[in-house]
Design a protein that fits this description.
Ig-like_fold; mainly beta; about 0% helix; 7 strands; Immunoglobulin-like; transmembrane; 3-stranded antiparallel sheet; glycoprotein; Dyslexia-associated protein KIAA0319-like protein; 4-stranded mixed sheet
Length: about 170
Amino acid sequence: MRSSTSFTPSSPKNNKPPVADAGPEKELTLPVDRTTLDGGRSSDDQQIASYRWQQTKCTSELDQPPVARVVSPPPVTLPVRTGSLDGSRSSDDKGVIYLWTRDDSSPAAGEVLNNSDRQALLFLGNLVAGKYGFTLTVTDGKGQSSTARGTLEVKAGEPPSHAGLHFTTRRAA
């Protein structure tokens, strides 16, 4: 006489799917570039067998604020009365709007040429001796901005040299 027994595993009758809980949503603002997620509040009516994490939003989709950069030139010596400041190394992932503003400590002389105070390169004319300070503000399409400061120094020219010239003086009779 033979007897056979078979066994078929079965699931618990009221098994419910697990509930994943990674904690509250987090938004990072630079310079913070990392965080910790905690799945400890996840639950199951039986037992959680394993965890698997998957990134759902790519970091390249985040809008980064712009970065303002100003390159100051070497000093200008009179009689040269023009100069420039360069903000073209400023950057943003979407593009920027430029705005140059004169610092209060700058000489009142000099003028912005060709409406360049709204361009990457600021051109100045009619300069006199002194240090001209300007602040560049770059703003992106979402209103995020950054500032940087640049200086243009204008030096007085050397007096003319009289080397090699001979002067003769006469006394009046």
